[in-house]
Amino acid sequence: MGEPYYIGGQPTYSPNTVTVIFPYTGEAFTEVCIAGMEDQARAANCARQGFAETKTLPAHRRAEILQRVADKIEEERETFVDILIHESGKTVRQAHFEVTRAVSVMRTSAEESVRLTGEVIPLDKTEAGEGYTGYYYKVPSGPVLCITPFNYPLNLACHKIGPAIAAGCSFVLKPSTKTPRSALLLGKIILEAGYPAKAVNVVPCTGSSAETLVRDPRFSVLSFTGSPAIGWRLKELFPGRHIGLELGGNAAAVVHKDADLTYAARRIAEGAVSNAGQSCISVQRVYLHADIYDTCLAMILNNMKSFVVGDPRLPETDVGPMISEADAVRAEEKIKQAVMRGARILAGGVREGALFYPTVLERASSEMSVCSSEMFAPVITVHQYTDVDEAVRQVNESRYGLQGSIFTNSLDVLERTVTKFEVGAVIINDYPTFREDSMPYGGTKFSGIGREGPKYLIDEFMEKRLVVMRRTSP
Q1: Which of 46, 158, 280, 371 is an active site residue?
Q2: For residues 166-175, average pLDDT
Q3: Are the C-beta atoms of 29 and 87 separated by less than 8 Å?
Q4: 137 has which bridge partners?
Q5: Helices (H), 55-199
Q6: Would you tell me which of 54, 78, 203, 250 could form a disulfide with 35, CB atoms 3.0–4.6 Å apart?
């Protein structure tokens, strides 16, 4: 029998299970029960019932619960690290870093939960408003449906659940069936920390059956992180309600001729291979000024070739496996197609099972899949430019717009570029893979709707309730 999921805080078993695979060896790590449509409906009903309790929890109680969750995640650090390594193939360092980030997200959510201020609005700007005062305060929207992907299964779950608890919302979390174990342990910890049991629902289920959850009218908000194809489809199934979509990208990094090339080359390489390239803001497209193209490219190649690729359980490993061999094959096929159309492999391009070696491509055109799609693999393409306006045009050719970056010491170059990049965030003098968990995070164009980060997602989970008061009698 597989490990149970949680409905209304109760461990729940199902005859249907999914085998969680250790990506490096292809061996089974654990078995987890998956919820059918009946249990999904029960979870939605419990979330609705739980909301009656969570919406009245005072701020100090929500903050205390979130701090206890953060403490318990830290206490279970080694267990989480082991789970993350085996269910997602993360290296030891990446797994520890994810746990550290998850703790930070919960603590930040706790801090924000006691800062949910409103605003007084004078209404006497017109004669009709004399004697009236308006003010608004924030109220939780209702049960939240959270859908998270495989690449950061603990931290991305915390990024949704932390703000939900801070806002006073109940939730149903649907984690990826590839990486459900960390989410189940997180659910157990939230229950132990004292959040109302009915409000805590963690239900791994297949993607196709999850549409039942999305269609359920008992949810007030949907917060989804995943592929654009699925995200935009879910938006159609969730009409008339609030939705947040974080749908990925193919991040660009621009290196101008006056940049610190040693630093830029190292950070670009690190941003390309972090988490085996399976990050929405992984470096994918690199634009080098013609004057420094050869020099900086040589530095990038040296960095990419220096990474240790292999068993993620070993502390010296820099790049572990992708989530599955099928995903590594997908990346391999895109590279083969690019090479057939004139691209050239300068480093890597080698696959061993689910392992994919850090890869650099030259002469890839913008319409090739290695540039236009989200590779989600440790692969970058390098391009040359002579004028910053040309670099901006190349960056903006993408249908994605999550994050981008530019390395330069010139204020003139920054003024000519940063406001023109069509992205949710521009990172100056660092890679586009930079994310501090408290910052607003989200994109434009095909990359999604809304912003994450505890402070900003709490706002997405709450409504402004306006009150208008007449101060004097007629």
Answers
A1: 280
A2: 98
A3: yes
A4: 465
A5: 59-75, 77-88, 92-113, 155-167, 181-192
A6: 203
Picking from 7, 216, 119, the residue whose alpha carbon sits closest to that of residue 465 is 119
Cα(400)–Cα(235) distance, integer angstroms: 18
The tally of CA atoms less than 13 A away on the side-chain side of residue 457 is 35
Query: Among 87, 98, 112, 246, which one carries the catalytic annotation?
Result: 246
Determine whether 53 is an active site residue: no
Distance of alpha carbon 458 from alpha carbon 109, whole angstroms: 8
Strands 144-147 and 171-174: parallel
Instruction: Reduce the secondary structure of 189-255 to three states and give it as a string.
Output: HHHHCCCCHHHEEECCCCCCCCHHHHHCCCCCEEEEECCHHHHHHHHHCCCCCEEEEECCCCCEEEE
**What's the Cα-to-Cα distance from 13 to each of 3, 36, 55, 204, 440, rounded to whole Å?**
7, 11, 29, 11, 38
Q: CA-to-CA distance for 194 and 15, rounded, in angstroms?
A: 29
Angle at 167 between CA 84 and CA 48, to 5 degrees: 85
Q: What 3-state class would DSSP assign to 393?
A: helix
* Statement: residue 473 has pLDDT above 80: no
Alpha-carbon gap, residue 416 to 399, rounded angstroms = 21
Identify each DSSP E strand in 330-447 by its residue range: 344-347, 351-352, 355-356, 359-362, 379-385, 400-401, 403-407, 425-428, 444-445
Cα separation, 144 vs 180, whole angstroms? 19
The C-alpha atoms of residue 1 and residue 261 are separated, in whole angstroms, by 55
For residue 431, the 8-state DSSP code is -
Cβ–Cβ < 8 Å for 304, 273:
yes
Which residue has 């267990």 as its token pair? Answer: 79
Residue 103: is its pLDDT beyond 70?
yes
Q: What is the pLDDT of residues 256-272, one digit of tens each?
A: 999 999 999 999 999 99
270 is catalytic: no
- Count other C-beta atoms under 10 Å from residue 227's C-beta: 15
| Residues in a beta bridge with 138 | 464
Torsion angle (degrees, nearest 10) of CA 404, 458, 179, 203? -150
How much is the mean pLDDT over the chain? 97
In the three-class reduction of DSSP (H, G, I as helix; E, B as strand; rest coil), residue 3 is classed as strand
Residues 129-165 pLDDT 10s: 999 999 999 999 999 999 999 999 999 999 999 999 9
Structure token digits, residue 88 = 């997602």
Tell me the per-residue pLDDT of 342-396, one tens digit each, with 9 for 90 and over.
999 999 999 999 999 999 999 999 999 999 999 999 999 999 999 999 999 999 9
* 3-class SS shares of the chain: helix, strand, coil, % to 5: 40, 25, 35
